[in-house]
Every structure is written in C-alpha cells, then in structure tokens.
C-alpha cells in the first residue's frame, strides 16, 4: 500500500495575518506541485479561516495545531474538531511535545483527541518522541512504544488506517540539533514494527510516519531519502518562505 508523503509546516504561535499571507504567496510561486506530495500549512487556530482563502487555487492543504476532544459544550477557550472540519482543515496535530510538556497533555487525552478527529474525518498527525534524558537513559524505545500503543487503544480498529504519526525527538525541536537520518530511520522502523505488532504488517505499511525536529533545507533531502521517512513536520524553517520552499523542492 502506497503511503502518502507529507511536508507540513507547524507555525506554532507565530506570524500575523499579513506575514502569513505573504509566506503562503511565496510558497505558491516558489514551489511546484508534485502529485505524490502533500504540502500542508498549520497556522495558529485564529488564522485558519484566512489560511483557507490564502491557499485557494493552489494544492496547499491546511490544518490545525490542536483541538479539544468534544464536539461542543462548556469548554471555554477550546476548539471543536467539528469547527475545524467546517473550516476545511485536512489535518490536525495531536500530542505535540509542547502540548504534552507545557499544557500537561497525557497519552489518554491525546487518545481522546485523536478519536474525535478521526470521527470527523480530519487526519490526526500524532506526535511522539523522547526527551534527551530518556534517550540517554536508554528508555526511549519504551517511551515511544507506550505513546504509539495508547493511540491505537483509543480508536476503533476500522479507523486505524486514518492515522499519521510524526516522530519528533524533543531534544531536536527548535534546538538546531537534528536527529541524524540513521537515528531517525531507526526510530521510524521501530514505530512501524510497533504498529505491525498491534495492527498487522499490511496496516503498518500504509501508515505514514513523518520526521520533525530541526528539519531544514540542508538535511531535508537526506531525511526524505530514507525509505522509512514519509515526510517532514517542520517548525522554525516553515516560517521562512525560502527555507520551506527549499525543503519542499528537496523532495523528488
Ligand atoms: P523545529 O520544530 O523544526 O523548529 O525543530 C518542529 C516541531 O516542533 O514540529
């Protein structure tokens, strides 16, 4: 089963409407459509209705960085997956390490949110990854296995194939330290093996696993060249039109 290749730019809490629009304009003019590549922008929630207009007449897709796991109700300040669907989001990040660390999101909450998203037919990009301390202690495989397993447990089997994962070693996020392509490859293979144990090899072959953590133009081609790496989740470098364009152009 062919896996989709995705290059997604996570803007985090950056950019104003004007700068977001200028960035998208530059991406549209500075890159070319590739039939087998999905380019996704993931702006802050408040900019999503604008992003929808910016990408009209292009093949760029857009998504959200977070949502709540209920569709409506007394959850002040939260965003419903149903609203994201109505706004045309194709993707939503879940369990980014900043959500897990700063906002205390547990594996259980990540599972609930993932469940809500698949019900709305929004593709969740579930982020998993270890801290530096966990890598140094050699507990990173266990950590990632638990994160992956808890997501599958939260879903009906019929929706498993709608998942996308992103391996994001926390020590590589925003630090300039990228996992080497071989380090990323090792974990991507481990994640696919874990999925295969839960869901079988055929399903594991169909689920895309992106790499994130200081992805940039200078390492994009080598990372994307690994058979186990199905795309990139880009933070800092997705805020600069030239860098993000060059990352997209690195895919062939
Ligand atoms: P970075 O962020 O590319 O700036 O390291 C990646 C992410 O947090 O998704």
What is the oligomeric state here? single chain
Number of β-strand runs: 8
Terminus-to-terminus distance? 19 Å
Assign a percent range to the helix content: 40-55%
Strand order of the largest sheet: 1-2-3-4-5-6-7-8
Low-confidence stretches: none
In the CATH hierarchy, the architecture of the domain at 80-240 is: Alpha-Beta Barrel
- Name of the level-1 CATH class of the domain at 80-240: Alpha Beta
Overall geometry: globular
- CATH homologous superfamily of the domain at 80-240, by name? Aldolase class I
Give the helices and strands as they follow along the chain: EHEHEHEHHEHHEHHEHEH
Largest sheet data: 8 strands, parallel, barrel
The proportion of strand residues reads 15-25%
Explained architecture:
With 252 residues, this protein is of the alpha/beta class. It contains 11 helices and 8 strands. It has helices at residues 17-30, 48-54, 81-86, 97-102, 107-119, 132-137, 140-153, 181-199, 201-206, 217-224, 241-249, and strands spanning 5-10, 37-42, 61-64, 91-94, 123-128, 164-167, 209-212, 231-234. Strands 1-2-3-4-5-6-7-8 form an 8-stranded parallel β-barrel, surrounded by 6 helices. α5 packs across α7, α7 (140-153) crosses α8 and α10 (217-224) runs parallel beside α11 (241-249). The longest helix has 19 residues, at 181-199. The two termini are 19 Å apart. The model has no long low-confidence stretch (mean pLDDT 96). Bound molecules: 2-phosphoglycolic acid. Residues 10, 168, 173-174, 212-215, 233-237 line the site of 2-phosphoglycolic acid (PGA).
């Amino acid at each position: 089963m062919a896996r989709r290749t995705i290059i997604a730019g996570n803007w985090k809490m950056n950019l104003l409407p004007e700068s977001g629009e200028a960035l998208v304009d530059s991406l549209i003019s500075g890159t070319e459509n590739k039939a087998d590549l999905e380019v996704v922008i993931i702006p802050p929630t408040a900019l999503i209705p604008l992003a929808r207009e910016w990408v009209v007449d292009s093949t760029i897709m857009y998504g959200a960085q977070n949502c709540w796991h209920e569709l409506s109700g007394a959850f002040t300040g939260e965003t419903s997956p149903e609203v994201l669907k109505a706004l045309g989001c194709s993707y939503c990040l879940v369990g980014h390490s900043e959500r897990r660390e700063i906002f205390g999101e547990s594996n259980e909450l990540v599972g609930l949110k993932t469940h809500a998203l698949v019900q709305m037919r929004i593709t969740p990009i579930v982020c998993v990854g270890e801290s530096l301390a966990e890598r140094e202690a050699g507990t990173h495989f266990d950590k990632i296995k638990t994160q992956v397993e808890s997501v599958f447990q939260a879903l009906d089997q019929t929706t498993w194939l709608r998942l996308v994962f992103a391996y994001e070693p926390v020590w590589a996020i925003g630090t300039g330290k990228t996992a080497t392509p071989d380090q990323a490859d090792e974990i991507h293979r481990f994640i696919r093996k874990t999925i295969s144990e839960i869901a079988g090899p055929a399903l594991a072959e169909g689920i895309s696993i992106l790499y994130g953590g200081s992805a940039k133009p200078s390492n994009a081609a080598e990372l994307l060249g690994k058979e186990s790496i199905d795309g990139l989740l880009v933070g800092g470098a997705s805020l600069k039109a030239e860098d993000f364009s060059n990352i997209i152009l690195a895919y062939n």
